[in-house]
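ok so dumb question maybe but i'm new to this and my supervisor (M.) told me to 'just get the structure for Nitrogenase iron-molybdenum cofactor biosynthesis protein NifE' and walked off. so i did the thing. is this what she meant?? sequence i used:
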Amino acid sequence: MSLLAAKIQETFVEPACERNRRKDADTRKKGCSKPPTPGAAAGGCAFDGAKIVLQPITDVAHLVHAPLACEGNSWDNRGAASSGATLWRTSFTTDLTELDIIMGLSERKLFQALRQIKEAYAPSAIFVYATCVTALIGDDIEAVCKHAAEKLGLPVVPINAPGFVGSKNLGNKLAGEALLDHVIGTVEPDDVGPYDINILGEFNLSGEFWLVKPLLDRLGIRVRACIPGDARYRDVASAHRAQAAMLVCSTALINLARKMEERWQIPFFEGSFYGITATSEALRGIAELLVKKGADEEILKRTETLIAKEEAIAWKRLETYRPRLEGKRVLINSGGVKSWSLVHALMEIGMEIVGTSVKKSTVEDKERIKQVLKDEQHMFESMAPRELYAMLSEHKADIMLSGGRTQFIALKAKTPWLDINQERHHPYAGYDGMVELVHQIDLAIHNPVWSEVREPAPWEDDPCVGERLPRTHNETAQVAPLNALWHDAGDFAEC
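this is what came out, is it supposed to look like this??
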């Protein structure tokens, strides 16, 4: 069995996954290896998933070893934000041609590209991504990266997640494995403290982690590494010295959290920063883990004081929106952590959840939804576009929260829609983020455009309106014979 095949099989038997823990030994080995449905690769391949997890590490050069078409434009492709270097937003590719492949020049071209990046950009590290083409022709990127690291004097990390091996989610996990194998633990920090934590699976979309970090700063808690949102290579490399960790997206990086706990005794819990109550519980969870690891218990009191103050401010700001949104029906077509955290957050201000997608949710996510909704009928694994359209056109929801792919279904049904996935332009995390989310929902629902587009069009309301529209002399002369024929046929007898 190849190293890649062994790594893939290892992700299928993830012991920290509740779904796998409930299976017998034989079923556990093959349960997660179910092949994707036809066309599922359109939602993202393993290469795409690996790049999503690693590209927000800002001071790293991300080199795609492939023909040009495998590299897309990385600028703002997921809305992740950086407070420092912008190197991660530059696209690098070896741009392999047919001649490179036929003549066996691809590995040589990879080394030349690595040397050129080092000389032109001086990055903290270079990540090299295998793709379908280079994996099929057998390029040994591990060997090339090792040789380049010795020659160039900087970390060169192979990311062996070619697209054909599986889904985007598998690529997320393979990216976590690459960090464990080549990055985390390679740098020893000289400033280790009792209040150091890691945040895993947080992508800092639209800069929303920046709404949470000040809260941790006020508690004296330092984020040693946020992986991957707004991360630096050295921070990730020294992440093994944190005292505790919070896992935001378990679907993507549960293997990373579990293995860091096994290797370096970093306990973790899964939480969310979406919603007032969820944010408060996340802060409590972090403080409690730190106390278990030896931090002063006084941090628990500081945390409760901060929570009380911030919740009071947030609820006061939300009272403005409650009369306008209370009782409004929401359809959430997302998944993962948002499938349950947004449900609870919106119900807190009096909105009604008519449905939430659990297609990308873990067993733990689904259990949380059941506890909040008390009705499994509002959970759906997947809903065909036709069904979504029928639900919205029949006015069973006042607004749909989803990603960009389904926005046109809502717009066709003349229903307000708000983007809550990676392309969004507003941060929704933390106390301030919850207020911003409610503000955007209010703007979407009460936008006057909906009352306009729901009115019947003039030609639907009065079939004769076309005849009464003013025309130029030439236009009248052209349509007069046709009008006579229509009247003769009786089509417009009522006119």
